[in-house]
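Thread: Newbie trying to understand structure tokens

Hi all, I'm a second-year student working on a class project, and my supervisor (Dr. K.) asked me to get a predicted structure for one chain before our next meeting. I've only ever worked with sequences, so writing a 3D structure as a token string is new to me. If someone could post the tokens and maybe explain what I'm looking at, I'd be very grateful. Here's the chain:
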Amino acid sequence: QVQLVESGGGSVQTGGSLRLSCVASRNTFSTYCMAWFRQAPGKSRERVASIYTGGGDTYYADSVKGRFTISHDKAENTLYLQMNMMEPEDTAMYYCASAFGFSDSWCYSRGEPSKYDDWGQGTQVTVSS
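---
Reply by user tm_fold:
Sure, no problem. This is what the structure looks like when written as tokens:
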């Protein structure tokens, strides 16, 4: 099983930056699909970005391409989401999620929240105009 602990949420002005962190406790010899989701009030939870810890292409939602960067630090067992040029539309609760990863292509295609096994507690991100 995996336990995920998030940090880094907060408030920022339009055009500013935030960096979210998610520390994962897991078998370090296993590969995982790790992702960031977000959910605004009254909206469905959507995948923002994902990465396969075994290597391969990353996934980004069209709405964040060119602005957000997902990365994984193997040594620290930590997932990051660097958010730049933030917009009010980025305001949401952000969640870190993890699933056992079979391949990079499997991870790239898995956008449904139900496909992920473990979740962080969520961290609020607010972007003011």
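A couple of things are worth pointing out once you decode it. Helices lie at 104-109. The radius of gyration is 14 Å. Feel free to ask follow-ups in this thread.
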